[in-house]
Amino acid sequence: MxxxxxxxxxxxxxxxxxxxxxxxxxxxxKQAAIPEANRCLFCFDAxxxxxCPTHIDVPRFIKKIASGNLSGSARTILDANILGASxxxxxxxxxxxxxxxxxHRFNKQPIQIARLQRFAMDSLHASGAPLPFVPGAETGLSxxxxxxxxxxxxxxxxxxxxxxxxxxxxxxxxxxxxxxxGVAEYKLPLVESLREIEMLSQLGVEFHFATxxxxxxxxxxEREHNAIFLGIGLGAIHRLGIAGEQLPGVTNALDLxxxxxxxxxxxxxxxxxxxxxxxxxxDAAVAAARLGAAEVHIAYRRGPEQMSAxxxxxxxxxxxxxxxxxxxxxxxxxxxxxxxGLELIRxxxxxxxxxxxxxxxxxxxxxxxLVLAIGQGTHSSIFADxxxxxxxxxxxxxxxGQTSDPKFFAGGDCTNGGREVxxxxxxxxxxxxxxxxxxxxxxxxx
Amino acid sequence: xxxxxxxxxxxxCGIQCPNPFWLASAPPTNCGEQIMRAFDAGxxxxxWKTIGEPITNVSSRYSSIDWxxxxxxxxxxxxxxxxxxxxxNLQEMAEVKRRYPKHVVIASLMVESKxxxxxxxxxxxEDAGADGLELNFGCPHGMSERGMGSAVGQVPEYCEQITxxxxxxxxxxxxxxxxxxxxxxxxxxxxxxxxGADALSAINTxxxxxxxxxxxxxANPNVxxxxxxxxxxxxxVKPIALNMVQQVCSDPASxxxxxxxxxxxxxxxxxxxxxxxxxxxxxxxxxxHYGYRIVEDMQDGLLAWMAEKGFASIDDFRxxxxxxxxxxxxxxxxxxxxxxxxxxxxxxxxxxxxACWDGAHQCIHxxxxxxxxxxxxxxxxVEAEAARRISTTPIPKLDAGGPGSTKAHTPLERIxxxxxxxxxxxxxCSLVCPVEGCITMERIENGLAxxxxxxxTAAGIxxxxxxxxxxxx
Lengths: 446, 473
Prior knowledge:
The structure holds 2 protein chains of 2 kinds. Chain A is an alpha/beta fold. Chain A folds into 3 domains: 7-127, Fumarate Reductase Iron-sulfur Protein, Chain B, domain 2 (Orthogonal Bundle); 142-171 and 211-235 and 378-443, FAD/NAD(P)-binding domain (3-Layer(bba) Sandwich); 250-372, FAD/NAD(P)-binding domain. Chain A is 37% helix and 15% strand. Chain A has helices at 7-10, 15-20, 30-39, 47-51, 58-67, 70-80, 84-90, 97-100, 113-127, 150-161, 178-181, 190-200, 215-224, 253-261, 279-290, 311-319, 413-416, 421-443; strands at 142-146, 165-169, 206-208, 227-230, 250-252, 271-275, 295-299, 323-325, 328-334, 341-349, 355-357, 363-366, 369-372, 389-390, 393-394, 408-410. In chain A, strand 9 and strand 10 (341-349) form a beta hairpin. In chain A, helix 7 (84-90) packs antiparallel against helix 9 (113-127). The longest helix of chain A has 23 residues, at 421-443. By secondary structure, chain B is α/β, with parallel strands linked by helices. Chain B folds into 2 domains: 10-324, TIM Barrel (Alpha-Beta Barrel), CATH 3.20.20; 328-383 and 409-462, Alpha-Beta Plaits, CATH 3.30.70. Chain B is 29% helix and 17% strand. In chain B, the strands form 5 sheets. An 8-stranded parallel β-barrel of chain B has the order 3-4-7-8-9-10-13-14, surrounded by 8 helices. A 4-stranded antiparallel β-sheet of chain B has the order 5-6-12-11, with no helix packed on it. A two-stranded antiparallel sheet of chain B has the order 1-2. In chain B, strand 5 (62-67) and strand 6 form a beta hairpin. The model of chain B has no long low-confidence stretch (mean pLDDT 93). The chains are: A alpha/beta, B alpha/beta. Chains A and B meet through helix 3, helix 4, helix 8 and helix 18 of A and helix 11 and helix 12 of B.
């Protein structure tokens, strides 16, 4: 990082949005954190560590909280996961570390790993101490990383710790990708993502913002760098392909979330409908409720048992007052100047398991804002003649992140089809180590 | 046949007590007003905060150590004896006895080591109505530097002599309070018995420094930047106190009625002291932590336990565990137990595994899903294997069997296996196991007749070079 303005200082400041999106899980204070840390059994080969995609040594960092070694605790977290503070807030821990806690089988109350992790990371940030790692001795090698989301950031950190230069290219004005722009603010505020990346960049990561990569540029990067990492994420949210989709008042979940997080959107109209029932759909629906919608519906073509949202996200949405309309499919978006309603048709399962519209069952919901959350497409096609793709996903060796072109590595959503921040960090970390190992092997004197 | 309702009323060295729960000589018995409130709460007796020539105390006076977020696991004080005049203490004592004639008031005494001085204080205290006298030969700080307290208790000859002086004058029972700050507590106990003591109380507090402030480098409790060793008490000292109680009660030359002290906080603690021979128990730290009200459950819980066990009175179980504590050379060398892990209760924390490998005898293994038992795989190898595994966040629709899906049952590969052939029966795994009843230690019938070390040496079949430290006393 060379003399650029602090990322945190560039974060939008909207007190009203902040007030509406207070912490879903409030921080622990010291007197709560220590007994909670002591409740941890300190399992051997702990299942929580195994369940974490980045394999944070959970019992180790928790025991360091208990002993009062908070800097050591944060270092333990960051050593495995350079976005440890973000993951402490954004991770769906119910299906990861906390879901794996052995106490489920004992007294049923798992250790609050996420809140303890946040406690350790907040303590590090509050102490003003620098990142507890230093760059490795410069090797003269360099890697271009396309995209500055969690996968590329994690990859860059591994490269820098090994003395390999890391140049990150991103189309947005600020780093972090979906970690910055796509996680519900009541889980991970935008400024906290930036704070963590600011710290990471103490390793000497070089950012190139507002830069879109085309084929020509790619060729240039390939010449200048020893390897390329693709952390490009996924593309735009799918469209429904029905009448009225061009009307004002039709948006998608990622734009809605990025909009309120960046301060461009501060309110929503009274009636909001979200199409889709994944975790992003839930984030969008809850955001709509918090931004002032009187009525928020989620419309999904199957039932609750088939939705891809985690069970706890579904429960959370219900607590926020979101209503679910199951087994429906949008047929038409109504409205003349802007969206006025959504026409839906009921679906029924047929004998072979497919779902069929029921003619004559059409009905409509009055809607002022329609939010699409039916999955993202891929935007990997510009690399199609470089690396092997499968249904748009970049094919990699899971252990090293290497693609079909040995000089190209990849990780994160563009390889796994869209998972969690922590999965992207794990991918990027493996790729960073993989790149260093590959460079060492290929550049070694014969 | 219905059991008679048990009673807590008991007699201790001739003193009738409504129950065996006494307050120890300490801040909770500073003054008459406190003691009367304690009696109202249900305490059967109180040993008055030690009376003697008034002293000057410092501030601060107390410090403690916390354990894993719990406060006051161990407690320490550098407070001296009563800072109020002998006259006031005795006036109040007379008033307490007038208003609570059935409750026990014991006067704790400490004066300079002169026969006349002791005679004088004994006379005045008994005139005030004390039911008994407790000679404070145990206070480890401040007073000992003036030739009193543990300076007396640590020298059996002084102990015997002063007890003798007191007995020349006393009409009420004389209890000698023993210090634990000595290598063998039986020595002062025997001296007190030779001096004519009617009873003993043990233990007084243990010399301690509770901690150092890592920012100021000063010790606790802090008196203007300096500290001094204090007397340690509270839950942490209970095992030490139980051992000393057992030593005194099982030694015929020491044995006298004993009032047990040291970390007693509830009825279970009290029952244990009584099982090792105590006639009453004294409490201080738990009251300083939670107030006099704790005696309600001490009474309630002890009565319920007595009813369950069929004990009608304290005497029915007092000393019952003494025969069960012997010297090591009386233990059966042929008794064999091994650990059994109950798979249905195991939560898969594997604490037993790492404890056995690193802290015991390498007899627990993680190989239940291996094709053949593998006793060579060490903890570091298991961890290295786990670190290489790639895991991802499960997506409900796509990934069945994420981490949350095994909540109900522990997967077999996480349940350790005990190599019973090599298990030495040390208990460690069952001690570290967080789930009660998950690891049990089970007897193996090996067909060998019981044999102790004493019997083995007497039979001349001890291995060459083995020897025993002989207690010459």
